[in-house]
Amino acid sequence: MQTNRELFDQVMVPNYNPSEVIPVKGKGSRVWDQKGDEYIDFAGGIAVNCLGHCHPALVNALTEQGQRLWHLSNVMTNEPALRLAKKITDATFADKVYFANSGAEANEAALKLARRFALDKHGEDKTQIIAFNKGFHGRTFFTVTVGGQAAYSDGFGPKPADVVHCDYNDLAAFEALISDKTCAVMMEPLQGEGGIISPSKEFVEGVRALCNKHNALLIFDEVQSGVGRTGELYAYQGLNVTPDILTTAKALGGGFPIGAMITTTDIAKHLKVGTHGSTYGGNPLACAVAEAAFDTVNNSEVLAQVKHKEQLFRDGLNIINEKYNVFTEVRGKGLLLGAVLNDSFKDRARDFLVASTKHGLMTLVAGTNVIRFTPSLVIPDEDITAGLARFEMAVSDVVNG
C-alpha cells in the first residue's frame, strides 16, 4: 500500500491539511521522513515531545509496562496512576489528581468541577465563566466555547451558556466583568495559540485577588506551559500566583496521550462518585510513561538548562533579525517562544514555516503573525545552533522572495 499524502485525502476527514512530509523515525531532536531526509525538530509535536523522540527513559517505561498491564477500568486502580499522582501532588500546590487523555478533557473536567463546586457552595445563580480573547482550551464544545477564538467555536449551533471573554492583560476590563455570579476564571499563565503572550505581574496578581474577592475559582490551563516548558515545573511557580485548579497534558506524557486536572482536597470533594469519569483516564500504560517523563523533567538541572537554552534561542534569533529585519520581538518564556513578524511580513508566518520545512527544520506558528518554537526541553545546544542556521536560510528565502 502506498502510504503517501494522497492517501490522506482519500481516507481522512479533511479537518487537517498536513505537509507532504511523512516522518517515519525520530531520535532526540532529529526526525527522518520516508525519503530519508533529516529534519531538526523545533516543534516538539506542539510542545508535547518534552524529551524529544524515543528518549530511553520513555521507551523503557513503555516497554516494561507494556509487558505487564495496559488497561483496567476505573472500577480498580493501578500502581502507575497512584505513583504519578503522588509525584504530581508532592511537586505542586495540589492534593488531588484526576486523570484524562488530553488537555481538552482535563479542561472539561476543570470547568465541570468549577460549576459543581459553585452550585454546591453558593447556589444555582453562580455559573458565569470568564476567559480571555485569543485563549485556547481545547476542542470539546464546552472548552472551545470557553476558548476565546470564535473561528473555532462558531458554526456548531447553540453554545454552552454563561461564558464571557475579555482581553488578556487588561485588568480594568476583567474587573468590570467579574462579579459574585462568576464561578470560575480560566486562563493560560502564558497564552500559547493566541501568540505566545506572557501575563504582566499586575494582571496575573490582580486576577487572583479579584477571584478571591468574588469567591471565583481560578483555573490555570497549563496544557502547553506545564511540565518544564517555561523553566519552572509549572508556569504558576514563576508567577507568585497559585491557582485553585490546574490542568496539564501535552508534555506530561512526553508524546503518550495523557492529561490531568489537579486541585485541592476541599474543591476536589465536589466531584463525588459518579459525577465525572473517563474510560482510559489513568490507564497504567499512559501513567507509566508519564511518570518517567515527569521524573526526568522534574530535576533542577534540566529546568535550569531550559533557561540556558531559551537564551541560546533568543541570541540566535536576534542575530538573524539584525541581518534580515523581520521580527519586532521574541516573546515567551523558557522553550515556549514566539518570533513576532513586523509589518513588512504581516500575516506571513506560514511562509516561514513552509520555507523552514524545505531547509530541514520543523517549526510552528501561533496565529498568522508569530513563528512558534517549542522544541524538546533537552535539545542539545548544537542542535539549536544547527536548527537556527537552517532557520536563517528559510528567513533569507522569504525575505528574498
TrEMBL record:
Q: What's the protein called, per UniProt?
A: Acetylornithine aminotransferase
Give the catalytic activity.
Answer: N(2)-acetyl-L-ornithine + 2-oxoglutarate = N-acetyl-L-glutamate 5-semialdehyde + L-glutamate
What other remark does the UniProt record contain for this protein?
Answer: May also have succinyldiaminopimelate aminotransferase activity, thus carrying out the corresponding step in lysine biosynthesis.
Q: Which domain of life is it from?
A: Bacteria
Q: Which GO terms describe its biological process?
A: L-arginine biosynthetic process
**Any idea which positions bind pyridoxal 5'-phosphate?**
103-104, 136, 221-224, 279
- Which residues take part in binding N(2)-acetyl-L-ornithine? 139, 278
Q: Which cofactor does it need?
A: pyridoxal 5'-phosphate
- Which keywords does UniProt give here? Amino-acid biosynthesis, Aminotransferase, Arginine biosynthesis, Cytoplasm, Pyridoxal phosphate, Transferase
Q: Its quaternary structure?
A: Homodimer.
Organism lineage string: Bacteria, Pseudomonadati, Pseudomonadota, Gammaproteobacteria, Alteromonadales
**E.C. number, please?**
2.6.1.11
Q: Which residues carry this modification: N6-(pyridoxal phosphate)lysine?
A: 250
Broad class of the protein's primary localization: cytoplasm
